[in-house]
Design goal:
Layout (H helix, E strand, L loop, with lengths): L1 E4 L11 E6 L6 E4 L5 E6 L7 H7 L1 H12 L10 E4 L4 E9 L5 E5 L2 E6 L4 H31 L5 E5 L4 E5 L4 E5 L7 H13 L8 H10 L3 H8 L16
Parallel strand pairs: 2-4, 6-8, 9-11
Antiparallel strand pairs: 1-10, 3-4, 5-6, 7-8, 10-11
Helix pairs in contact: 3-4, 4-6
């Protein structure tokens, strides 16, 4: 089985961080959220590779702030907004309590999460179920479009929630995609879809595989590097929720 790994190596520097694009931002900004997470705010047209040099320039301040927050209790909260960068969609989230069965609905571009007990874990499950359905509606057709465009053939495609994989492809040409791909930039998600399609021709990571991928994805080298750190783009609430 050919697999595309999410790297989650524990390192002292750079620290894990979340990225938020902002139309108002004129330069790269750093802030520590209430939950103790380092957030990097970047202009819409800023390249991801510009983040690390800027982060190194403010390293003393970041280390001091993270050391301070590490001594404080961490409060886990669910998102007030969900940004699906791969498909360029943003949804403000409103949480409601109701007497009927739990549900998730979109009304006027606002995501309403209704739950009987107001449980954080239950609301998180509802959010993930909704995102997985979104992934099925968007990633599967996207994969078919790319396969038709570049002449690939695969058997089946499934959407899963792997902890350490962005995607995988079997010898039978069955492709599995992680729903979390929706949180990555569009070009990076496209690169990973092409990566899995290339595995239908070359199951390993041989020179022939990288040559094929590079032929159809001109940004292959850059995106290959970015994919190793792409887990940092995922929102923190996707981790464990403590009640």
């Amino acid at each position: 089985m050919a697999e595309f790994f999410i790297t989650d190596e524990k390192v002292a520097w750079p620290p894990p961080y979340q990225i938020r694009r902002s139309a108002r931002a004129k330069r790269i900004l750093f802030q520590i959220t209430a939950s103790g997470t380092l957030e990097v705010v970047i202009p819409n047209r800023c390249a991801l590779k510009a983040i690390e040099p800027a982060l190194n320039a403010v390293r003393p301040w970041v280390e001091k702030q993270l050391e301070k927050t590490s001594r404080e209790p961490v409060v886990f909260t669910l998102p007030s907004c969900i940004t699906l960068s791969a498909i360029n969609e943003d949804y403000p989230v409103t949480y409601l309590k109701q007497v009927f069965k739990p549900s998730v609905a979109v009304l006027d571009d606002v995501l309403f999460v209704s739950e009987i007990t107001e449980s954080l874990a239950e609301r998180k499950r509802l959010l993930i179920d909704w995102i997985q359905k979104k992934a099925r509606r968007h990633l599967v057709p996207w994969l078919y479009e790319l396969a038709n465009e570049y002449g690939f053939d695969f058997n089946q495609v499934s959407i899963r929630g792997q902890k350490s994989l962005w995607g995988s492809c079997t010898a039978d040409k069955n492709i599995s995609l992680n729903y979390k791909l929706l949180f990555l930039p569009e070009r990076l998600t496209r690169h990973i879809l092409l990566h899995e399609l290339c595995h239908t021709v070359h199951l390993d990571h041989s020179d022939r595989f990288w040559k094929l991928l590079g032929k159809i994805d001109e940004g292959c080298a850059e995106y290959r590097k970015l994919s190793r750190e792409a887990h940092q783009l995922l929102p923190r609430w996707l981790g464990s929720v403590k009640e």
